[in-house]
Amino acid sequence: MMKFTKATFVFLTCMTLLSKREVFAARLLAPQLRCPCLRTYSGKPIYPKLIQNIQMIPAGAQCRNMQIIATLKQGQTCLNPKDEWVKKIIEG
């Protein structure tokens, strides 16, 4: 009876760990359910050389407007895709 209890415990522990890993992996692959940009920066143009990376997320079911996320040395900021200077940066 004691071996059965240990085996059951090991089995249940393994199943729990596997299910948690699958849930974590599913969260990484799941589409984002909200817009990443709640507010956009629409002020003085940012010098293009200060922008390390630009990520464009097209409009879709989760967000009705295109999202443009600029990575700067200080962090990330969302840019207004309607601003002319942002359009020039995107065009290259």
Structure explained in plain terms:
Mean pLDDT is 77; it is low at 20-30. By secondary structure, this protein is of the alpha+beta class. The chain starts with a helix and ends with a helix. The chain is elongated, with a radius of gyration of 23 Å. The chain has a single domain (2-91), classed as OB fold (Dihydrolipoamide Acetyltransferase, E2P) (Beta Barrel), CATH 2.40.50. The protein is built from two helices and three strands, in the order αβββα.
Total number of distinct structural domains: 1
Q: Estimate the mean pLDDT confidence.
A: 77
- CATH architecture, by name, is Beta Barrel
- Main sheet properties: 3 strands, antiparallel
Q: What would you report as the Rg, rounded to the nearest angstrom?
A: 23 Å
Hey, roughly how much beta strand do the residues contain?
15-25%
